[in-house]
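Input sequence (718 aa), recorded before submission:
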Amino acid sequence: MTSMEAESVTTILCTSKQTRFNIGVPNYRELDIEGLSITVTSVASSKGGGSSKASKGKARSEGTEVLDNTTLRLKAGQRYALVGRNGSGKSTLLKAIAQKLIPGIPEETRVVILQQTDAGDVNTDVDPDQLASHPSAAGNRSVLEEVIERATARHEAQRELDGLTRYKDLSQAVESTNPFDAIRSLRRIRRERLQKDLFLKAKDAKLRSGARGMQARKALIAAEKTVTEFDAIYVQKDNEISPETLAKETSEAAELLADLQLQIEPSKIAEIEAHAKKLLTGLGFSESTMLKPVSSLSGGWRMRTALASALLQETDILILDEPTNFLDLLGILWLQRYLTTLGESADTPTLILVSHDRDFISLCTDLLILKAKGITYFHGDLPTYEEAQGEKKIYLTKMKEAQDKQKDHIQQTIQKNMREGKAKDDQNKIRQAKSRQKKLDDRWGLEVSAKGGRFKLNRDLVGYHLTSRTEIEIPQDERPVQFVLPEPPDLRFPGALISLDKTSFRYPRDAKSKTVPPLVLQDVTLSVHMGDRIGIVGLNGGGKSTLIKLLVGETKPTSGTLNLHPRVKIGYYSQHAVEKLQEIGVSDPDLTALELLSREMATSEKDEGRVRALLSSIGLSGRVVSDVPIRKLSGGQLVRLEMARILWTCPHCLILDEATTHLDYETVAAMREALRAWPGAVVVVSHDRWFVHGVVEGHVDDQGSDLSDEEEESLGGE
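Predicted structure, token format:
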């Protein structure tokens, strides 16, 4: 058993069972880790007073257990969809894989991860050079330069750019008139490599325990000694270097220069740049946008930049956490096809995908279901899994009922024989009854194997067990996700809630520009009544947000009329709602969800129960609302909090702009059904095809998109 502690904003403790056999050359695109347990604790818990053993015990006891003695198994080249409810630990598992905190993941395995921006301090505990996510402003670097920089500097196997930098330095030193310049450059490169090797050995020593741990610590001590000895050489002055050393290291510098020259392939750099342009174009970047500084982009476009960087890198395991959050429909369709075509390459990376879009994850070949502190594997898509689980539950329920009925009959027969044997003092009958009772207790249970065949003890129940059969366990459904919408109040007199009549809109002309901006919306006529379900779809920049702002009254039309019902109440969910809540959490670090709602609604203490009831109706309850600061809430919890803020007034019309972002698929399904049954009006903007079809058209099937292959092909080609 091995373990590791990752000191950061939160502490991730990972343990796993290691094999003691030599497995030869591993396939770095595969993982097969048994006995995996992951616990998450806070820094305050892990750094409490007392001895180190006491603090570790305290951290474990106060931590949140994500996985408990489960198996993590990934096959090379497969596409996995990781599904689970918000808070089940999906992001923690992905972070543990990406940072190689799990004992058993080879250090040589190349892992690229794109993480969603769930909090304002995303990945503050992760070395930014090791992640493709959460891109920060890259100074004056253009989008194209940023993508290439992140992709080429990511792995040791892709040293072209790094080698180019060293080559320029070293070549100048070799050609210099000062003979010591070449030695200085050579020693600087060697020192960097020794420092990196020391870091890897220190990490390995933390990961290992027992005999392996002793060997790892010996290797660490040897590496520390080597670094210390080399540091003494590194700081030597020119007059302290002997002529023999000068001649020897000058020759070695020339050899290293030749080696680095082989790594520099202009054609390779050109190929990378062409591939980067192709990816950026598919994600919606124009030629002019590619040349803009990254610092001038919005958060959504920066995430697209990070996604392009992740896709550009050569990797063994590619992890994408909610990559569709900032993509329009065309971008989603393009990404879906691109990830599918990755399987056509020779060294196809293993893909782990997290997404609330059920149509999008249909590209995956397998499911990883994170549930009850374990991982369940299923070959197929999500609708097939749900159907199979339903059939399995019915099958096992019928089997258990039949066995219980048969067991009751046998039990009655045994008791009857026991009574008769005692009455007649028939010892043979008594022994026979006891023997049957023993067999009944030992051999009663599941009579089929995991594949549905006949049960064999030496194959299907290996090891020590209390009985010779496993008990029939009927899969238990998780507690259904709660999402209840309040009833809208009576309007007293009928009429349209919102009406647009031949409405047009253009943004004001810039003072420096003489040209009149084009119309964003032209002659739009729309009426929204109680009970209406309206879906607004289109490309990014097509005017969806502008139309929404007109409906909620944030902007006024350039021409035409906009009329609102005199008594209408509108609940508006902005696509930037999560970011705004994160800013509120940063400005007031101790503010909780309960305090925020109480402050905004001017409630007294006696109304706290009403606030809690509202939060509970959409899935926020207990200490999460009163003790956990907003800045520490997950993306899904922030979405629920924003929904509570707009539902407090009991609106007649809900206008939801990308409200499914950050939610798990079960919560999206619960929201879809709640909106469908709600008597008020709903206007929804979303790129989640399954969600829009369900809310607007009332589709209840879970078989994916209703778009035909021809329709999707035409969309993808636009």
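Checked by second reader. The radius of gyration is 31 Å.
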